[in-house]
């Protein structure tokens, strides 16, 4: 009887209610968070629908506008103190625009410009934006940190050329195993448009061109002989391994093309490691 009274007592009932309240609050918080996430997704979808038709008229018009905003803005951010003397009429130097707001505009321009290019889906536009933004950022930052203009050295030019060819190959190869789904959902990828086999070989040739550029740069450099030898040999080996593996690739088999795509990334990592080692030891 005492036990039955204890179970049915108001205190136990209150305790049970108290225990279940946190669970209810947790569910409420999770529901609120989900609603916020859904709202953000809906807003981005509406924003995409709002922007997309206008982008289609001029493909690179809006991304170029944001790139221009970024390039000019990032230069003013890094040259803030210099512009106070040389160009006091500029918004940031004159105080018409706060430093925080200028940084916000610059960051937003970079995000919006890259985002629009990704929406358009043009590899050329994406890499044009990334390379231009990167070069101008390096130029502005280098001027700010070292107080001298950026010098496009031989090694920097070679690296940019290698990355351009190799990264383009990677971006093309990435869609090869997904062609079935792309066609089904109306995604106009290069693999869906040109065919898996053709895109596969285009990407392979781009990889080989990248290794050839690095090989020629190493062979014609003024570095010590052993560095030239390692550089040339490394690029020949990497290019040969990649070419040899092509005969085992079935372009219609997603698992096979994904495996080869993974190998391409490993080749890139090896090239980067070899480049870092040789440059670290290059005193020429």
From TrEMBL:
Report what the protein is called.
Answer: Glycinol 4-dimethylallyltransferase
Protein localization: Plastid, Chloroplast membrane
* Similarity comment: family membership: Belongs to the UbiA prenyltransferase family.
Q: InterPro entries, per this entry?
A: UbiA_prenyltransferase, UbiA_sf
Keywords from the named record: Membrane, Transferase, Transmembrane, Transmembrane helix
Taxonomic placement: Eukaryota, Viridiplantae, Streptophyta, Embryophyta, Tracheophyta
Does this entry carry the keyword Transmembrane helix?
yes
TM regions (residue ranges): 43-62, 97-118, 125-145, 151-173, 199-219, 225-244
Query: Which top-level group of life is the source organism from?
Result: Eukaryota
Name a GO CC annotation attached to this entry. chloroplast membrane
Natural source organism: Phaseolus angularis
Q: What GO molecular functions are on record for this protein? A: transferase activity, transferring alkyl or aryl (other than methyl) groups
- Membrane topology of the entry: Multi-pass membrane protein
Entry annotated with the keyword Transferase:
yes
């Amino acid at each position: 009887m005492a036990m039955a009274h204890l179970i049915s007592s108001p205190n136990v009932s209150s305790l049970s209610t108290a225990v279940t309240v946190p669970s209810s609050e947790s569910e409420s918080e999770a529901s609120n968070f989900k609603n916020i996430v859904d709202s953000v997704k809906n807003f981005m979808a509406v924003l995409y629908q709002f922007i997309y038709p206008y982008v289609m008229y001029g493909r690179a018009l809006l991304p170029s506008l944001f790139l221009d905003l970024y390039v000019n803005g990032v230069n003013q951010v890094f040259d803030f103190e210099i512009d106070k003397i040389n160009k006091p009429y500029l918004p940031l130097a004159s105080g018409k625009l706060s430093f925080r707001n200028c940084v916000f505009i610059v960051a937003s321009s970079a995000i919006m410009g890259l985002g629009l290019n990704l929406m358009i889906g043009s590899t050329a536009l994406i890499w044009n934006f990334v390379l231009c933004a990167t070069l101008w950022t390096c130029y502005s930052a280098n001027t700010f940190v070292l107080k001298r203009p950026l010098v496009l050295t031989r090694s920097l030019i070679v690296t940019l050329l290698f990355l351009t060819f190799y990264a383009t190959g990677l971006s093309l190869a990435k869609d090869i195993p997904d062609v079935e789904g792309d066609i089904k959902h109306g995604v106009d990828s290069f693999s869906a448009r040109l065919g898996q086999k053709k895109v596969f070989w285009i990407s392979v040739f781009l990889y080989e061109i990248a290794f050839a550029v690095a090989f020629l740069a190493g062979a014609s450099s003024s570095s010590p002989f052993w560095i030239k030898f390692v550089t040339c040999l490394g690029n020949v080996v990497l290019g040969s391994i990649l070419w040899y593996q092509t005969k085992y690739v079935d372009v219609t088999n997603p698992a096979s093309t994904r495996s080869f795509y993974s190998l391409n990334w490993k080749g890139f990592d090896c090239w980067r490691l070899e480049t870092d080692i040789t440059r670290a030891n290059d005193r020429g």
